[in-house]
Amino acid sequence: MTSTIDPKEVLKFSSLSEKWWDEDGEFKLLHDITPIRMSYFKEKITEHFNLDPKSLTPFEKISIIDVGCGGGLVSQPMAKLGASVTAIDASLENIEAALNHNKNNVDYRHATIEEISKNSKKYDCVLAIEIVEHVANLDQFIKSCAQVVAPGGMIIISTLNQTIKSYLKAIIAAEYILRWVPSDTHDWQKFIKPSNLENHLRDNNMKITELKGLNYNLLSRNWYLLDQIDTNYIAICKQV
């Protein structure tokens, strides 16, 4: 089986692992966008599984695997909503950072998705948040993610579109002008057009049912969702 791991990417994030929970540090951008993303994730998961949106723990009967979990910025809020969460990362340092912050209610594992796919366990929801643009083999990654989706389940993918606008905003502006993320965090050549992602999903009996973009209002200093996806996008994916 071809590995999805890019050693350079693992090393890059391992070197920053102590910064995951510094809200003013290298991962400030991820902390800033977590509330709006979590609200959207909650809405879509609740809708898909016909759960009670008014419940404080609507995901009590839902199993989730967070692939490329980093320091647990999404895993932990999901667990607080009641989900049974397994969180995996190829970086041992990232897993240690997540465990050091809060080990309660999340099953953290130093593992890859292709390793997990060899097991019989399936998950209601697979999260691939800001990870597909860092993998070495997208085809194998999507295949492995699809293999662990339980019948009637879903995949949520958040990534960057491969456009001139994404190069200017996500790399030139975010990395070198505004310094929102460390320089060389992203490689534009690995950004993924939705049509390309759709092809990989279709090959694995999955399809995109909704796309949303995320944008920043410089005046209000707030993040918001929109239908425009030429910089980044969240893909809600369901089984065919």
TrEMBL record:
One of its GO terms (molecular function) is 3-demethylubiquinol 3-O-methyltransferase activity. InterPro entries: SAM-dependent_MTases_sf, UbiG_MeTrfase. The keyword Transferase applies. Pfam families: Methyltransf_23. It is an enzyme of class 2 (transferase). GO terms for biological process: methylation. Keywords: Methyltransferase, S-adenosyl-L-methionine, Transferase, Ubiquinone, Ubiquinone biosynthesis. It comes from the Bacteria. Gene3D superfamilies: Vaccinia Virus protein VP39 (3.40.50.150). Its EC number is 2.1.1.222, 2.1.1.64. S-adenosyl-L-methionine binds at R37, G68, D89, I129. CDD domains: AdoMet_MTases (cd02440). It catalyses: a 3-demethylubiquinol + S-adenosyl-L-methionine = a ubiquinol + S-adenosyl-L-homocysteine + H(+); a 3-(all-trans-polyprenyl)benzene-1,2-diol + S-adenosyl-L-methionine = a 2-methoxy-6-(all-trans-polyprenyl)phenol + S-adenosyl-L-homocysteine + H(+). Pathway: Cofactor biosynthesis; ubiquinone biosynthesis. O-methyltransferase that catalyzes the 2 O-methylation steps in the ubiquinone biosynthetic pathway. PANTHER family: METHYLTRANSFERASE, UBIQUINONE BIOSYNTHESIS O-METHYLTRANSFERASE, MITOCHONDRIAL. Belongs to the methyltransferase superfamily. UbiG/COQ3 family. This is Ubiquinone biosynthesis O-methyltransferase. It comes from Candidatus Arcanibacter lacustris. The lineage of its organism: Bacteria, Pseudomonadati, Pseudomonadota, Alphaproteobacteria, Rickettsiales. The gene is ubiG.
